[in-house]
Design brief:
Helices cover 60% and strands 0% of the residues.
Length: 152
C-alpha cells in the first residue's frame, strides 16, 4: 500500500466515511475498467455511503423501538377479527397520530392480535425515519408512576 492510499484511508477513517474506506479500492478498479470519470467514481462512492448510513439508521431505530416481533399489518389476519376496523389500522400505520400527539392504547383479551397490531403499525414509520417505542402496560406502570411525594 502506497503512502497516498494510507493517507487517504486515514482521512476517511477520521471523517467517519467507513463505507468510502471499505469500498474505494474496488470502486476505483471498476471505474478504471469501465472508463468512468472521477465524478462518476465519487458519485458511486457517495451513493454507497448514503445507502449504508440509511440502512444503519433504520436498523438502529428498529433496535431502539424494542419491538418484540417483526411483523407488518400485511401479515395480520383480519378475517379472524371481523369487528376490527381495518381502515382505522391502516390510518394508524400512516402515523397521523404522531403529528397530532395522540396516544394509541390497545386494550383487549389475550390472543386478539394487539401485539401484532402494535408492532405492525410503527413498522413503516420506523423505516421512514420516525422514532417509535413499544411499551407494555407493565413497563408503563413501573416506569411512569406519579412522583413520590416524600422526595424533595
Amino acid at each position: 500500500m502506497n503512502v497516498e492510499t494510507q493517507l487517504l484511508e486515514s482521512y476517511l477513517k477520521r471523517l467517519g466515511l467507513t463505507t468510502f474506506l471499505h469500498n474505494h479500492s474496488a470502486f476505483a478498479v471498476d471505474a478504471a475498467q469501465s472508463q468512468h470519470s472521477y465524478s462518476r467514481y465519487l458519485l458511486a462512492l457517495a451513493e454507497q455511503e448514503l445507502a449504508q448510513r440509511a440502512a444503519n439508521s433504520r436498523q438502529r431505530r428498529l433496535k431502539e423501538a424494542k419491538l418484540p416481533l417483526v411483523k407488518t399489518l400485511n401479515d395480520f389476519d383480519f378475517t379472524a377479527m371481523p369487528l376490527l376496523n381495518q381502515q382505522r389500522l391502516v390510518q394508524l400505520a400512516q402515523g397521523e397520530y404522531i403529528g397530532n400527539r395522540d396516544p394509541v392504547i390497545l386494550v383487549g383479551n389475550p390472543g386478539l392480535g394487539k401485539t401484532h397490531v402494535a408492532t405492525g403499525s410503527p413498522w413503516p414509520l420506523v423505516t421512514n425515519y420516525t422514532v417509535c417505542a413499544f411499551i407494555t402496560p407493565r413497563h408503563w406502570s413501573t416506569n411512569c408512576s406519579p412522583p413520590n411525594k416524600t422526595t424533595v
